[in-house]
Amino acid sequence: MAFNHLPAGVHDALRPLSVRPVTHSVSMADNQIPRQAGIRPSPRAVLGRLSTGASRSTRITHTEHLPPRPGTHADWPSAIRPEVINAIRAVGIERPWAHQARTAEHALRGESVVVATGTASGKSLAYLAPVLSTLLDGSEEPSGRGATALYLSPTKALAADQRRAVAGLTAPLGTGIRAAVYDGDTPVEEREWVRQYANYVLTNPDMLHRGILPGHPRWSSFLRALRYVVIDECHTYRGVFGSHVAQVLRRLRRVCARYGSSPVFLLASATASDPAVAACRLTGVPVAEITEDGSPRGEVVFALWEPPLTELHGEQGAPVRRTATAESADLLTDLAVQGVRTVTFVRSRRGAELIALIAQERLAEVDRSLPGRIAAYRGGYLPEERRALEKALHSGELLGLAATTALELGMDIAGLDAVVVAGYPGTRASLWQQAGRAGRTGEGALAILVARDDPLDTYLVHHPDALFRQPVESTVLDPDNPYVLAPHLCAAAAELPLTEPDLELFGPATEELMPQLEQRKLLRRRAKAWHWTRRERAADLTDIRGAGGSPVQVVEAATGRLLGTVDAAAAHTTVHEGAVHLHQGRSYLVKQLDLDDSVALVEEATPPYSTTARDTTAISILETTTEIPWGDARLCFGSVEVTNQVVSFLRRKLITGEVLGESKLDLPPRTLRTRAVWWTVTDDQLEEARVHPQALGGALHAAEHASIGILPLFATCDRWDIGGVSIPLHPDTLLPTVFVYDGHPGGAGFAERAFHTAARWLAATREAIAVCECEAGCPSCIQSPKCGNGNDPLDKKAAIRLLTTLLAGAPEQPPTAE
């Protein structure tokens, strides 16, 4: 029997806020601290008031005090034009921080560089100063066009924000800097002007992939003069998306070389581990790193907060904690009453809307003027709505926002006193990025991480060293993934015929792929080059943000209105017939899933239940790439084929999670060839661990669940990016085996990272299970929200003994990357 859960797509049941009355109340007289001009409440005082009362104080598991840090100034390199320095001074910056000056020095020497410093450390100015200076130099050339620069951001909103920042900075410089946004929202009539005249073009990887590179002859004058490529928030380019962007950048370098240019890459990142290594893998060129942050920082008080247990019981009678959503709404309410300007970061759009709504309702009981000072902020809002919210927060008109990560990336939100993070955002880099939104003017700030009922969150709030004493994660991506590489080779051949010297640029896997692309008649070799010969656009072969396959369109049946899309890989589990589908705060029932036309027809409804898909999974080993002994156990990494079939779905009550019924489904099986890490144990080890045959399945299953929940601590992934299977006797290994695999065709680098950090990863997994206060297993340790087997069987105590025995044989040094 195999116990498994899918990497992406099982619909997470809507969790209850609470079935008990709120255990505290807010009072204007007791808690509100009127904000006086220029006076901000002390973060320690604010936290003290939040934790007043016995029930509240026990929720804080750890408080970290980060002392203030003075800034370190330097001088701009002499090659920066005086007009640029004067423009910078005009906005109130007399001298740069040390890391800004060092970044500019590398850029002016023609060396690619990544600046990986804290939030609000001035990374934008670090690359803008040399870029603007170079563009001004070029504007004086007789040719007129001069040097050009390209800015890439992961979101259109961030590019638009950067455009406004550049406009404010360059106003005194006259017409020498012609900055323009070029993305899917750019009107057709403006696009020709951008191509012909702009010398600083702000866009995103999607537009570069689908628009600029396929139409490179129309961009020839811009590309011929391209001096710099700025890659902002480069830590977001990870996993399959990062792997696609890496190949897009190789295509850009190739086309630029055709026009005689070789641009310098300037990358900005949140604090990251080995940023130069990640930046080199992303761009394919050597990259220097600047990691010493010269900017000042005010005191930060960082609290770890664990919601209490409720009287509710979930699957298999497991205890259930109060949700992070409900707890964060309470904190936002209390902070608003204190006059503390706050952003609460939430993982979902619906969660942001819900927290804002709850806080507004509770504030109305205190003071009718307060609800209007709380709002939600998420993707999907119109640009003018976002700008209005940002302005209101700046001015103090708004006291609080409940926001998705749409506010995380680079938005310059000053004047905040506190940040509440509703659930660990997946990586330490994102956590610090979000926490850094408070205290951005150098004053003190409060940050609170509210744990979800999840193994990783629970582990972190009880192991603060994992957050505060460890470096942030490495950015994981795999440009050599053949499922990623193949469509980009076709796109490159459509842009310019591929030659033998080009193959090295795209990586070592290219040479093996070329014959396969010829056999599939995607490419044809003529003379010394490969050509794209089909009529359709090669760039349309892949969606760089998707996992492969045509996305399924979600269409409202009554109106024909397109609501959105779902990745093909997730369609079977999220938009099957009868599924409850959430979109922008509204719920819909799926009436029909047409796999041939990739369409799911839905109708708006408000059923009192959520749906969870059940599935069966088989996994076979295709190739063992690496295998090392752990005593009698074996740790392996290699290629696998996963066959999954969704066979039914459960309907669960929204409040209690009680199962209302199960409905059968008739969906075809799906196969996935990907990369996996797996470990085996022997009969002697089972005997040593006192894991009896009847407990074996539950022990393996529990270890699998917990290890998937903990892996995001070691690899930049979400638990929904990976899947797992545990089998008491696997036909390929003939031993009890636990697999953890990447949920993307060809792999995304997560399983490989797990293999190379296996000793620490599995030790943290064992610890997470062992320290959980539940008796037999719960969502905080071994239960999974996406388990296709209903979290049955699970054996917590046997899993601890099994992992203890497994780790006893682990080598002293973890395996090193090849």
From TrEMBL:
Q: Which Pfam families match?
A: DEAD (PF00270), Helicase_C (PF00271), MZB (PF09369), WHD_HRQ1 (PF22982)
**Membrane-traversing stretches:** none
Which InterPro entries does this chain map to? Answer: DEAD/DEAH_box_helicase_dom, Helicase_ATP-bd, Helicase_C-like, Helicase_put_actinobac, HRQ1_WHD, MZB, P-loop_NTPase
Record-annotated Helicase ATP-binding domain positions: 104-290
Q: Name one GO molecular function term.
A: helicase activity
Q: Which UniProt keywords apply?
A: ATP-binding, Helicase, Hydrolase, Nucleotide-binding
- Start and end residues of each stretch annotated as Disordered: 51-77
Q: Which SUPFAM superfamilies match?
A: P-loop containing nucleoside triphosphate hydrolases
Ranges for domain Helicase C-terminal come to: 331-483
The UniProt entry, under PANTHER family, shows:
ATP-DEPENDENT HELICASE HRQ1 (PTHR47957)
Name this protein carries in UniProt:
DEAD/DEAH box helicase
